[in-house]
């Protein structure tokens, strides 16, 4: 029998449209491997909510593979090399990733590793300026990407022959799930991790895709795809989503897939995108820190800001590991502009609490809302939470997640008066006051 090939599953926990898996299967018997590497620097280690999703996604993948999934824990470079030596692997096939530490891992493994595309619609090296550099703004990126669309058709699930697996870890021993308290008790009510869950969610969204452009900003409706965690963990590929939706006219959502590709291109161009401002001048903004700022941040995290639309979103996040996209923008803008708290603190919180936390998307979107990125709105654009709540008809959404205000009618619930709010807290800061403070901080930064 020929030497086995290792298929190293990373964030591509599926069997269909998997170039690395297809290549490994074509070479002969395979050893499916997943490595849990907790050595990621700083707060970039996989977040708590993602760990819940990862546990269930790995369980689903192992079931698909008939239990033939080797689990090992430790530094990825060391573990992959060890497994390759143990089994006498001819090669290790994997999907390439864009996070800086993932790229360092790929470089360290060198010629042992055969890398394949699969994270994006098309390979990112095909979407560059004429000089070969990444685009800095989405419009130009989209124009260049559109010339290379549609993406290649998805690959079918390959037939697999398995080699004998060496000893590995038990998934339960990784303790990815929360115990006391079990804050994820409601996560499973809103999503089903795994490839089948991803395909079922895509099927449910197909008929709604044509109306996505009208309904996606309405928090009280189920108008979004809910595919983001499935895409993040690679339980479904962007190419599969594209080819399923394009015939149905879901153009607006397809452009969101392109934004996802753009975020990865931005991270390749700026590996420290999650920690450094893209616009150098914005580094001079004096963010509030310590004391009252910490108290305000704590109120924001637990949905006690006194702004119903913000608090509804933050409570939805804590309860489900997911937040409506429009509300994410409103909550992020409130933290950065009204509370004048560094966008990186908010990004770190989202990283730990979102099941779909994605470094490239998370960083690019926070910098966009904060006005600090090369592709972003201006800092002086301050969202008004009350107007956003009214404009996007969020009354029922607020009633669901801020039940102490459920007795209020649509006219009152967006901005409850003092005599109707009961135990609900007053606003941490008024809109006009918060906007004025933000603009003053911007003016000081520009003058320094």
**Relative strand content:** 5-15%
- In which range does the helix fraction lie? 40-55%
Mean pLDDT: 94
Rg is 23 Å
- By CATH, the topology of the largest domain is DNA Cyclobutane Dipyrimidine Photolyase, subunit A, domain 3
Class by SSE composition: mainly alpha
Give the strand tally: 5
- CATH class of the largest domain, named Mainly Alpha
Q: Work out the count of structural domains.
A: 3
Please specify the SSE layout and strand pairing.
Layout: E1 5-9, H1 19-27, E2 30-36, H2 48-64, E3 70-73, H3 76-87, E4 91-95, H4 100-109, E5 113-116, H5 138-146, H6 195-206, H7 212-215, H8 228-232, H9 238-245, H10 251-269, H11 291-301, H12 308-320, H13 325-338, H14 343-353, H15 359-370, H16 385-391, H17 395-401, H18 410-413, H19 431-447
Parallel strand pairs: 1-2, 1-4, 2-3, 4-5
Helix pairs in contact: 3-4, 5-10, 9-10, 10-15, 12-13, 12-17, 13-15, 14-15
